[in-house]
Amino acid sequence: MASSILFPANSVTGIRSKTPGFMLSGGHRSAAQVVRIPRFFYVRSSLDFLEANVSDMSVNAPKGLFPPEPEHYRGPKLKVAIIGAGLAGMSTAVELLDQGHEVDIYESRTFIGGKVGSFVDRHGNHIEMGLHVFFGCYNNLFRLMKKVGADKNLLVKDHTHTFVNKGGEIGELDFRFPIGAPLHGIRAFLSTNQLKTYDKARNAVALALSPVVRALVDPDGAMKDIRNLDSISFSDWFLSKGGTRMSIQRMWDPVAYALGFIDCDNISARCMLTIFSLFATKTEASLLRMLKGSPDVYLSGPIRKYIEDKGGRFHLRWGCRQIMYDRSADGETYVTGLAMSRSTNKKVVKADAYVAACDVPGIKRLLPSPWRESQFFDNIYELVGVPVVTVQLRYNGWVTELQDLERSRQLRQAIGLDNLLYTPDADFSCFADLALSSPEDYYIEGQGSLLQCVLTPGDPYMPLPNDEIIKRVSKQVLTLFPSSQGLEVIWSSVVKIGQSLYLEGPGKDPFRPDQKTPVKNFFLAGSYTKQDYIDSMEGATLSGRQASAYICDAGEDLVHLNSSDAQDLKACKFNTIYQFGDSISDTGNAIIEFPILPYGRFPYGISVKEATGRPSDGWLMIDYIAQSAGLPLLEPYENPNSNFTQGVDFSVAGVTAVSVDTLIKWDIPPFVTNNSLMVQVDWFNKYLPTFCTNVADCQEKIKSSLFMIGTIGFNDYNLAFGQNKTLEEIKNIMVPGVVQTIIDSVKKIISFGATQVVVTGTFQMGCTPGLLTMFSTNTSAAYDAHGCLKDYNDFFMYHNSHLQVALEGLRKEYPNIHIIYGDIYNALQSILDNFSKLGFKSLTQACCGIGGKYNYSRDRAQGCGQAGVPVCSNPAEYVFWDVAHFTHQANKYLSEWLIKNMLPQLQCA
């Protein structure tokens, strides 16, 4: 079967089938001896009743199988990337989305569901990866299905387990009994006609000596005992307790093949006894259900809709080529991204947490080989998958109708055995007639049975051509159902899976990995991973719940790991940093020139409890960059008391890139200060004699210095905006001049001996409270999805594009100089795209200000720092502090993004 039994499970609706059930007693019954009885006495047709019984499964049950509902997550919102859209991956996604996280699921195939998936061929036939049957003990899967609205898609079958023997003889384990567990199970095993009396007696003795008995009073203790039996096969355990080989061959081998695709000689006692303990202690555990149609429509479909409705995203046909990783300073491995590809398209996916929700062969292909140095990951390679072949056979009649030969030939009404069927007498240990058991997609008017047969083990069939497989399987069907002689196979399909469920052999359980790995931001999910159930649909669902819980527990650490990325500028060993620019990097020059400015008094500096002259509530990007380099904060050039031994800040708020003369030439009235970019470069030239004694000495010291130029240019353009010049005019006239001025300043700095120069572009000024207020419009098309002015942001992108082209020419002119573009535009875009995850609540409003939609007024008396102007209660939730300057928190994130982007280009040792 597939998936959870890899029998992919099926659900719960209590809709009565067209086919009556069967009640057997005594020894094997032939087709002529099968007695029909009314089904209504046994079928739970009330969904409410069934749900009540399913929920009762968790009462006095092993805690590992029935975990409590998770507590509400209160940490930072995380971005999570999941590899694999199977049941484990989707279960993980649902849990994470319910906790408020952002989730993307990547699947290399064209359909979702993994081993529980299905697709429609070009003729309209639904093709499944395996036979999916839902046991009543699938508590976690039922919980998931109820959450997404898929529980109504399950059809409850008669509470019997039916064995079809050679010649059409039927054996049963009949659990239908007015009294529940454990008496219903005792009666079923004592009255079964699948075993002879002696075998039944020995079977009873073996089960009486098993941990199943302890499970009645101490389920967790029993589960511990069962885990301790993992090292021996079920056959060895069963025979040692008095069970017979005949019981294994006629009853337990078919069950073992259905559960794990291997026989009792090769399956762990833990695997079988886990199921037995639930069957014995929970009345509904052995009650089977199947989907009313294909898994893609009735299982994966509702889960996908739920995920997408919650904001989750599926990316089909995107496969993971490589897990990218690095090591922190303390030697810890962490994932930095996923290299993904779709056809010829490639991209790198970044997230706070990464989940590999794969099967065994998938995770082996994915893991970086150096990770095998860790015993945790190396253990996974001890696990191997079991090959399985699933065959579908469509007949022109009803194969499993054993009583009425004439009715089996008519096609007006579906008739036959509507349940999961086991057999000890064929290479397919379990099968079902999907036209009866899952009629919505598999019953076709004018056609007959659709047998779905699971060939286990599949090894002998893997190399065979499909025609030969169909021939062999149809011959075995005839052996089981002689009454089907003369019926023809009118359509067929074969699905081969080289490695399906992992081989749950003796001693393999210790090699199953936990969902939490030694790599801090990398997690696993999948039915093969460590959980108290077996490799199955239920195990996959449970693994997803456990993976989500681990991720939520690590929330704070994951955000910190992602932001710091475990690297800083100390590796570059800079002795000094020099900053040139405008207010975005002014650490105090402007208030020396213009003491009237509010930057030197509260609320400026409120987040660091000191007004420092910086236009923010705290530190600026250059402050964080200096800290990352292990240097003190830069002091302003115009402060005569500054210490310049390890760097200088030449930036001044309000300055332009071009000179006053150039602005006048462009018919733009200049600002009150003339400390333009080239003036700042001249300041550096005047400063040099205080730093070094001669040209050679200066050049040697400057080699170990970092030069930061920008941001610069916004004030040039803003002055033009105030003169009502069009964006096209500004593009054509001003952008070339502003960019050339920046390039000239870089050349001048290089002439002083600079070897490491970072030139920062401009950011999305169309998102600032100032520009949004100045150019407010009722035209919705003027704004992007973040509420920013599109045309103005496009303009600043235009400036950046020209600057980058010019810098590329400069690199060719100075091939031995590291000239780096500081991409603040994309740094801010990262905040815009992830603002809620990063803890921001406002993108475009000023924290400090008053008036209008953006907390900003063009009346200077209502500007930040003026009397009576309010300040937000939590600046860390705002991107902008005032008219156009970032908050302490935003500067922190922007600097971390820039550092991460700069490091590879700086080529530090």
TrEMBL record:
Record's keyword terms, sorted: Carotenoid biosynthesis, Chromoplast, Oxidoreductase, Plastid
UniProt-listed Enzyme Commission number(s): 1.3.5.6
Catalytic function, reaction form: 9,9'-di-cis-zeta-carotene + 2 a quinone = 7,7',9,9'-tetra-cis-lycopene + 2 a quinol
Name of this protein: Zeta-carotene desaturase, chloroplastic/chromoplastic
Entry GO terms, CC: chloroplast; chromoplast
Annotated metabolic or biological route of this protein: Carotenoid biosynthesis; lycopene biosynthesis
Compartment(s) where it occurs, according to its Swiss-Prot or TrEMBL record: Plastid, Chromoplast
Record flagged with keyword Transcription regulation: no
Record family assignment: Belongs to the zeta carotene desaturase family.
CDD domains per UniProt: SGNH_plant_lipase_like
Alphabetical list of InterPro entries matching this protein: Amino_oxidase, FAD/NAD-bd_sf, GDSL, NAD(P)-bd_dom_sf, SGNH_hydro_sf, SGNH_plant_lipase-like, Zeta_caro_desat, Zeta_carotene_desat/Oxidored
Domain Amine oxidase, first and last residues per copy: 87-551
UniProt-listed GO biological process terms: carotene biosynthetic process; carotenoid biosynthetic process
GO MF annotations, alphabetized: 9,9'-di-cis-zeta-carotene desaturase activity; hydrolase activity, acting on ester bonds
Coiled coil: none
